[in-house]
């Protein structure tokens, strides 16, 4: 790359990324590794241990050995450890941001928020577990029935490459709070930041073997975890195709699964909305995090009277977004995570030019000859059967289409296989609620965006997922409930 651009290469980059099993950093049993690249030079900076069934087996054994003591620890004591983990995460904010930016291509200013969000996951679930009561049901004067909640065992956690550390924390925190031990399989394109967990968790006093990390390729390490008979639960965040495959594999052992999958979330914008606020929200929703955001509002449906104005202003904003090296604090869109993903996104951009009208972007910015860069891209007049309307692109690309009335808006919003998030913009609150109820999605924001309330259920419908995590849903997921009936 040109030498005047910051490389963002953090100090003390490890040359080797290893598994963490039973409190020890280990190579794979068979010694295999895979190369890890950064998305700016697209050249290898480290090798990571490539886990397979034997490594997963060792990790599950460590998790099983640690389970009796961890699951029986008082909730207050577990909560204290979770609070210390949160402090450890926050204390590494700058280091985490530097690693995440370098490894995943996230703009540094956006990577900085990740530590706080990750830390909050631990504090929140610490509070939940301490405050959790168990249910009891009295039947007349003769009988009482009460529920005993027990952690399910060694949980298998499989995570994607977008905001990798934060999404790992989203699973680690409730699993640990619930009393599970676990094996985490981080995404192979972005394994770097997971290397912070051992020092954070050990520093917080978490006993060895409670958390185990096995790196590797999804089809090998991930599959071995899914297939392991002593892992009764899989929490997965990733693509819909992989999710379907994991559900099929999990059926062999009737595992409990939670699937947080892809999206093609609609923004429904009525003519009476606050257009400035909606525009800010759309730009943020689809271009922040490089557009590699599961809840990105990647289809914008706009009521006809404001369609021309909105598309023109959105295109102007997209052209002004600063694309640049991830480590540059003025960068708003960085480098897409991996050349394979970049090529996939570019293929969609090419397809989109045949399917719809290109209003902005559509190519690599001229000042960035290398690295996985794309100028934020806006397509207008996108027909509902277009691939760029139907399929998740997972990059800074937005499809805009007009609608004439509320019924058509809802129909278009629901016209894809996905159902993760939706956004409604209108000054008519009755209509806002009506549309929110009619849209097929797990989460809807009315006149707002990006508010994450950790108490609320998180997840999607249709091809966007199965089950809910968040708040009490997470505790339900990581525990079994047994009912005890007692004659008084
Ligand atoms: P992916 O499905 O390719 O990979 C996700 C994880 O699954 C990785 O760790 C991978 O190694 C592993 N994996 C792959 N094959 C496997 C197998 N056969 N068995 C077990 N594990 C396997 O997804 P990705 O490209 O890393 O992530 C992007 C996707 O994640 C997008 O579709 C995005 O919408 C989705 N996502 C969803 C949410 C949500 O909350 N709904 C959040 C973030 C990302």
Automatic annotation (TrEMBL):
InterPro entries: Ald_DH/histidinol_DH, Ald_DH_C, Ald_DH_CS_CYS, Ald_DH_CS_GLU, Ald_DH_N, Aldehyde_DH_dom, DH_HpaE
Keywords: NAD, Oxidoreductase
Residues in Aldehyde dehydrogenase domain copies: 29-484
Active-site residue list: 260
Family affiliation: Belongs to the aldehyde dehydrogenase family.
Protein name listed in UniProt: 5-carboxymethyl-2-hydroxymuconate semialdehyde dehydrogenase
Gene from which the chain derives: hpaE
């Amino acid at each position: 790359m040109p030498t005047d651009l910051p490389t963002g290469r953090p100090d003390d980059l490890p040359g080797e990324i290893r598994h963490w099993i039973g409190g020890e950093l280990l190579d794979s049993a068979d010694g295999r590794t895979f190369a890890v690249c950064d998305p700016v030079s697209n050249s290898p900076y480290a090798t990571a241990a490539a886990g397979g069934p034997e490594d997963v087996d060792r990790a599950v054994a460590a998790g099983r050995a640690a389970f009796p003591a961890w699951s029986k620890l008082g909730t207050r004591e577990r909560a204290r450890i979770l609070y210390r983990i949160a402090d450890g995460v926050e204390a590494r904010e700058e280091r985490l941001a530097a690693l995440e930016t370098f490894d995943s291509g996230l703009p540094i200013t956006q990577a900085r928020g990740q530590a706080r969000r990750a830390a909050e996951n631990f504090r929140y679930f610490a509070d939940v577990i301490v405050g959790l009561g168990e249910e009891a049901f009295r039947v007349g004067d003769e009988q009482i029935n009460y529920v005993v909640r027990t952690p399910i065992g060694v949980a298998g956690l499989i995570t994607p490459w977008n905001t990798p550390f934060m999404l790992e924390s989203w699973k680690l925190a409730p699993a640990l709070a619930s009393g599970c031990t676990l094996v985490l399989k981080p995404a192979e394109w972005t394994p770097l930041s997971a290397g912070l967990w051992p020092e954070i968790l050990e520093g917080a006093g978490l006993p060895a073997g409670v958390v185990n990390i096995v790196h590797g390729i999804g089809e090998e390490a991930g599959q071995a975890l899914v297939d392991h008979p002593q892992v009764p639960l899989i929490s997965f965040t990733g693509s819909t195709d992989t999710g379907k495959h994991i559900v099929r594999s999990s059926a062999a052992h009737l595992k409990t699964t939670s699937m947080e999958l892809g999206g093609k979330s609609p923004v429904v914008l009525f003519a009476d909305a606050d257009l400035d606020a909606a525009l800010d929200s759309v730009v943020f929703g689809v271009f922040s995090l490089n557009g590699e955001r599961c809840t990105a509002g990647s289809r914008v449906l706009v009521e006809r009277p404001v369609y021309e104005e909105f598309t023109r202003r959105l295109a102007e904003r997209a052209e002004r977004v600063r694309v640049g090296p991830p480590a540059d604090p003025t960068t708003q869109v960085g480098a897409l995570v991996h050349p394979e993903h970049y090529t996939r996104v570019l293929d969609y951009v090419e397809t989109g030019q045949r399917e719809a009208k290109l209003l902005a972007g559509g190519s690599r910015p001229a000042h960035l000859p290398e690295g996985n860069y794309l100028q934020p891209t806006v397509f207008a007049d996108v027909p509902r059967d277009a691939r760029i309307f139907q399929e998740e692109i997972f990059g800074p690309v937005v499809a805009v289409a007009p609608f004439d009335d509320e019924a058509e808006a809802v129909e278009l919003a629901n016209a894809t296989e996905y159902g993760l998030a939706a956004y409604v913009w209108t000054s008519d609150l009755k209509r806002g609620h009506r549309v929110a109820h009619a849209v097929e999605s797990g989460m809807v924001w009315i006149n707002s965006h990006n508010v994450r309330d950790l108490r609320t259920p998180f997840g999607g419908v249709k091809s966007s997922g199965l089950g809910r995590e968040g708040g009490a849903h997470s505790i339900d997921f990581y525990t079994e409930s047994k009912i005890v009936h007692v004659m008084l």
